[in-house]
Amino acid sequence: MPRILLTLLALLSLPLQAAELQPFSASYTADWKQVPITGTAGRSLKQLDNGRWELGFEAAMLVASLHETSTLRLENGALLPLTYRFERSGLGKSKEVELDFDWTEKQVLGSDRGDPVRLTLNRGLLDKSTYQLALQQDVADGKQSMSYQVVDGDEIETYDFRVLGPERVRTQAGLIDAIKVERVRDPTQSTRKTMMWFAKDWDYLLVRLHQVETDGKEYQIMLKDGTVNGRPVEGLKE
């Protein structure tokens, strides 16, 4: 069960301005409504050399932990993943993923749980972390529906989203005006529901995530604090 919540924490996203990445750090709390379990997560984006960026994520729940790192670059407004590393340990099944995106040879090479991965790399293909940047960029650009091609295991999956509208969210940083977004799934394939709220005034930082599993269990992730381009995130005071 902690594994499921850690998977949800992996959805925590990054602040982004259209056609421009902003360095950031953010921390979150997570609650599982059916059981008194709380967890924490942190995510950061920092600039490296040669136009590269590093996106880091860590989550902890009881004795379980998750680490995720992507490197990427921004080229003509498009996000190009370079490397992706994922490691989960503790309760449940452990998992390791290593992917390298070779844009010269147009291939994705690596391994998932020890199984080899080799896929054709086309422009627009993203990993399970950088697609979140693309989502925020598209929400910031005012798009109402979005679709992404994402490397998921040894396959390429389509992730669909739609904007539901503005909504104010109460966080530990204050009241924040946000845009509510829904993950779109085929109801004949999955009854899972995922809702996300992105802060309008803070480069569309994810401030809340709410998920309902197929068995009815609910999970919620909420912003604790953060900075965007060195500015502390501050909402309206009640």
From TrEMBL:
- Its domain of life? Bacteria
Q: Look up the signal peptide feature and give its range.
A: 1-18
Q: Which keywords does UniProt give here?
A: Signal
The record's annotation in Pfam families points to: DUF3108
Protein name according to UniProt: Dehydrogenase
